[in-house]
Amino acid sequence: MKKNTIWCWVIGVGCWLMAACTTNVENAAKVDKQPEIYPDYIGVTIPAEIAPLNFSLADADCVDVVVKGSKGGELHVQGDEADFDIADWHQLTKQNKGGQLTFTVCALQNGQWQQYNDFTVSVSTYALEEWGLTYRRIAPGYEVFSKMGLYQRNLATFDEYPIIENTQVPGMCVNCHAARQTDPSKFVFHVRGDHGATMFQMDGKREWLKASNEQLGGSMVYPYWHPSGKYCAFSTNQTRQGFHMVAHERIEVFDLSSDVFVYNPTTHEIIKDSLLSTPDWSENSPVFSPDGHTLYYMTCKQQDYPMHYKDEKYNLCRISFAPETGKYGEKVDTIFNAVAMGKSLTWPRPSYDGKYILFTLMDYGYFSIWHQESNQWLLDLQTGEARELKEINSDKADSYHNWNINSHWIVFTSRRGDGLYSHLYLACVDAKGHFSKPFLLPQRHPKEYYEESIFSFNVPDFTKTKVDFDAYNAGCEISSDQRVETKVK
Predict the structure, then answer these.
(1) How far is residue 431's CA from residue 353's CA, in Å, rounded to a whole number?
(2) Rounded Cα–Cα distance for residues 83 and 36 (Å)
(3) How far apart are CA 105 and CA 103, in angstroms?
(4) Mean pLDDT of the chain
(5) Cα–Cα distance measured from residue 398 to residue 383, given in angstroms and rounded to the nearest whole number
(6) What is the CATH number of the domain that holds 386?
(7) CA 317 → CA 206, 252, 285, 357, distances in Å?
(8) Which domain holds residue 46?
(9) Which segment of the chain is annotated as a signal peptide (predicted)?
(10) Nearest partner of 52 among 114, 94, 10, judged by Cα
(11) Angstrom distance (rounded) from CA 427 to CA 433
(12) Do 111 and 169 belong together in one domain?
C-alpha cells in the first residue's frame, strides 16, 4: 500500500470516528435510572467558582449532555465524555448561584441512543473565596519513595503547578506544609533527608531552619500558624513504623515520644512549657483557635512500643495562650475524650469562624491514612457535643482535612475509590453544620487522570492566592546546608 493511501485511510477513519460522536439525538429510548457517571457528581453541591464537572459514562460510544440552569442558561456538549468549556461553565454556574443545574444525559450504545433520568447539582450561595489547593502528592510507599512533592491547583481551572519536587535534591522528602489561614504569604514546610530543614517564607523572604534542635530532641513538624502570623505551633516527634502481618492492614506509625511547642520566627525562639512536654505523655499536632488565644492539641499516654501499639489512643486537649506575651496558661483541659470511647482522635482542625473542630476518629494511633476505619467527626465548640459525619464518611479511610476561610467548604482525603489511593474530595457546610455530599476534585479527563495516576494526595489545604515560591533557588539553598539556629526560650 502506498504511503499517501495509508494517510488517506487514517484520515478517513479519524473523520468517521469524529462524525460518529457528532450526531443528533433522535428516538432515544428512555431508561428509568440515573446514569452511572464517573466521577459521581449526582446530587452534589458545588461553589460557583469550581472547575467544570467533567465526567464519563461506562460502555458509551458517545455521550450527549444538556445542562440547564434553574435561573437560566444552558450548555450542550457531545463527545467521548462530558467535557465542558471552562468559560461557558462558569457563566452558567455564576448565573445559577443559589439554584440548580439539571443534567440530561443520553448515551449512544450499539447504534441506539438511550436517555437516562435527569439528575441535579446545586450551586451554593456560599462563595469559595479561595484561589486553589495545596497538597502533597506521593506514590504509596514506606521507606523508599520515587517522585513526590508539594503542588498547587487552581480550583477554577484544571491547572496544577509544582511548588517544590524531590527531583531537585536527591533523597529529599517534602511534607508538613501550612499557610497562615489560607494566606500563603506566610508559608512553611519541612524537608527530610540528608539536607533536612524547616523552611519559613514570610512576605517573600525565605530562610531555612536547622532540621533538629538537640534541646527539642527532634525536628519541627506538623506546623500550624497563629492567626497573627507572629507564631507557628509545632510538635517534635520520634516517629517509628512497623508492618502488619495481615492482609487488610499494612503499616503502623507510632511515636516513641512527642512534645508540643510554639515558635517565634522573628526571634527564632522556641517557647516550651512543662505542661506540653510531659515525660509520660505524647503531645502532638497543635493548632491555634481562630482568635489566637487557645492552643488545641492531641495527647496520648505513652505505651511500650511496638508491643502495645493498639493502646496508642489520643484525646483532644486545650491550653490558653497569650499572644501578647507568648505565655501559656496554667492548666490543660480535655475537651473530647476519645479514649473513653475506646477510640483515638487525630488531625484536629478548627473552623475559622470559631464554631467547630473537625477531626478524625479511629481505633488507635494517629496516622489515619493507614486505617480503613478512620472517619470524620465534628465537635461543636458552643455546645461541646460531637457527632460522626455520616453524610460524608465512607467505608474506607477518610482523613486529612482543612477548612476554607469562610468555613463553608472543606477538603479532605479519602480512599473510597479503590481502597488504595487517597484522593481529594470537597464538601459544603451550611449554617447549621450539615455537610453536603462530597465530590471528587474535578479533572479535565477524570477517568483517564485517576485511573492512570499512581499517586496519592495528602495534607490538602486551601490557599487564597497562588503560592509564590522560587523552586530553583530553593533547591540550591537546600543543598547548601546553610541553616538558621533555633534557641529554646
Answers:
(1) 11
(2) 16
(3) 6
(4) 89
(5) 25
(6) 2.120.10.30
(7) 33, 24, 11, 12
(8) 3-123
(9) 1-19
(10) 94
(11) 12
(12) no
In a domain, 485, yes or no: no
Which cell numbers hold the place of 220?
519541627
Domain edge (last residue) among 60, 88, 123: 123
Q: pLDDT tens digit string along 350-406?
A: 999 999 999 999 999 877 677 788 999 999 999 999 999 999 999 999 999 999 999
Cβ proximity of 195 and 212 under 8 Å: no
Summarised one tens digit per residue, pLDDT across range 230-267 is 999 999 866 545 444 444 555 566 565 589 999 999 99
* Amino acid in the structure at residue 316: L
Residue 292: all three cell numbers together: 489566637
Q: Which of 237, 379, 230 is nearest to 317 (CA)?
A: 379
φ/ψ of residue 287, rounded to 5: -145, 145
Q: Are 325 and 185 members of one domain? A: yes
Q: Which among 281, 278, 276, 282 is positioned nearest to 261, based on CA atoms?
A: 276
SS3 annotation, the chain: CCHHHHHHHHHHHHHHHHHHCCCCCCCCEEECCCCCEECCCCCCEECCCCCCCCEEECCCCEEEEEEEECCCCEEEEEECCECCCHHHHHHHHHHCCCCEEEEEEEEEECCEEEEECCEEEEECCCCCCCCEEEEEEECCCCCCCCCEEEEEEECCCCCEEEEEEHHHCCCCEEEEEEEECCEEEEEEEEEECCCCEEEEEECCEEEEEECEECCCCEECEEEEECCCCCCEEEEEEEEEEEECCCCCCCEEEEEEEEEEEEEECCCCEEECCHHHCCCCEEEEEEEECCCCCEEEEEEEECCCCCCCHHHCCEEEEEEEEECCCCEECCCCEEEECCHHHCCEEEEEEECCCCCEEEEEEECCCCCHHHCCCCEEEEEECCCCCEEECCCCCCCCCEEEEEECCCCCEEEEEECCCCCCCCEEEEEEECCCCCECCCEECCCCCHHHHHHHCCCEEEEEEEECCCCCCCHHHHHHHHHHCCCECCEEC
**151 and 95, same structural domain?**
no
pTM score of the predicted model: 0.91
pLDDT greater than 60 at residue 213: yes
pLDDT of residue 237: 65
pLDDT for the residue numbered 148: 85
Give the cell for residue 483: 541553616
Distance of CA 116 to the CA centre of its chain: 33
Query: Which of 119, 129, 339, 367 minimizes the C-alpha distance to 240?
Result: 367
Q: Are 434 and 391 in contact (CB under 8 A)?
A: yes
Q: What tens digit of pLDDT does each residue of 301-338 get?
A: 986 656 666 788 999 999 999 999 999 999 999 999 99
Q: Are 298 and 164 part of one and the same domain?
A: yes
